[in-house]
Write a structure and sequence with these properties.
The complex is a heterodimer of chains A (about 70) and B (about 240). Chain A has two helices and six strands; from the N terminus they run αββββββα. With about 70 residues, chain A is of the alpha+beta class. In chain A, a hairpin with a 5-residue loop joins strand 4 and strand 5. Helices cover about 70% and strands about 0% of the residues of chain B. Classes of the chains: A alpha+beta (about 70), B mainly alpha (about 240). At the A-B interface, strand 5 of A face helix 6 of B. Bound molecules: zinc ion (2 copies).
């Protein structure tokens, strides 16, 4: 797969990831990594933020809408 | 910060217990002051008021403090090794303060006729002995803590329904057994109206206070250990003994 954003400007670049929301292929420059916090526990115990986060790849358009 | 500090969690317990006592005992006060007493329909509304209050605060603060809003629940979690001792002291203190604050605010809003109406205090009904009152408090708190364990502590429970189930068991306990001894199930819920009444000169309730300490704590402990045993959640490799 190739990068959708690069392809729009006529460049052919290999995609390294896929936006989890819209599915567009993305190269290293156009993939945006927005890690998601994980919470452990919960009622009847307080929730704790986990040390590790969940990786998540987004394109620029979806990242703008979601954040 | 991985979780809120003990101070913040204690404040959440204080607010949660305030809401429980304000809405719960407030429903008794408004029944008596504005509708002239509590009949069986009024009892239904009182049970639902307590149940709704528990449910909404579980959903509001369950992930912050764990919404125990009841010393009997905190003690049962502590006794089964799920809750640290230093947190226990802070939580119980916050629960007691929140309960008293709620009763004081009810008096501030409704006036001293709220005190005349009894502030929603708990008391054994006519013909109910001291020991019978302790027994009914133990039985009702047994149901409450059993549902907390089954619907929330046990991670096999259906996600998101704990608050609803626990609110409903509180309501059912009160609707059925309220006339017997008040269906407190919660030393803090009894303490709030009791101390506030004392400020206005009524001290007769203190001799009954041990009912609402011993009954809920004993019932809660039995439920916690019984659930842990029956469900096997404390022993990871629970073997089939057949
Ligand atoms: Zn690209
Ligand atoms: Zn996208």
């Amino acid at each position: 797969m190739q990068c959708y954003v690069c392809a729009q400007s006529g460049k052919e670049t290999e995609a390294l990831g896929i936006c989890i929301v819209c599915g567009m292929g993305l190269c290293k420059d156009h993939a945006i990594r927005e890690d998601v916090d994980l919470w452990e526990g919960g009622y009847p115990f307080p929730s704790k933020k986990a040390k590790k986060k969940l990786p998540r790849i987004l394109c620029a358009e979806c990242a703008e809408v979601l954040t | 910060m991985p979780q809120p500090t003990l101070l913040k969690r204690a404040i959440a317990e204080l607010i949660g217990t305030f809401v429980l006592v304000f809405l719960g005992t407030g429903s008794v006060v408004t029944s008596v002051v504005f509708f002239g007493g509590v009949d069986s329909a009024g009892l239904l509304l009182i049970g639902l008021s307590f149940g709704f209050a528990v449910m909404i605060m579980i959903y509001a603060f369950g992930h912050i403090s764990g919404t125990h809003i009841n010393p009997a629940v905190s003690i049962a979690l502590w006794a089964t090794g799920r809750f640290p001792s230093k947190d226990l002291v802070a939580y119980v203190a916050a629960q007691l303060i929140g309960a008293v604050a709620a009763s004081l605010v009810i008096v501030a809003i409704v006036g001293t006729r709220a005190v005349d109406a009894g502030l929603g205090h708990t008391m054994p009904g006519d013909g109910v002995s001291y020991w019978q009152a302790i027994a009914i408090e133990a039985v009702t708190t047994f149901f409450l803590v059993l549902v907390i364990w089954g619907a929330a502590v046990d991670k096999r429970a259906a996600g998101g329904f704990a608050g609803l189930a626990i609110g409903l068991v509180v309501a059912a306990d009160i609707i059925v057994t309220g006339p017997i001894a008040g269906a407190s199930m919660n030393p803090a819920r009894t303490f709030g109206p009791l101390l506030t009444e004392t400020f206005w000169g009524t001290t007769s309730g203190w001799e009954k206070f041990p009912i609402y300490i011993i009954g809920p704590i004993v019932g809660g402990l039995i439920a916690a250990f019984a659930y842990d045993y029956v469900s096997g959640i404390k022993s990871a490799g629970d073997k089939d003994e057949s």
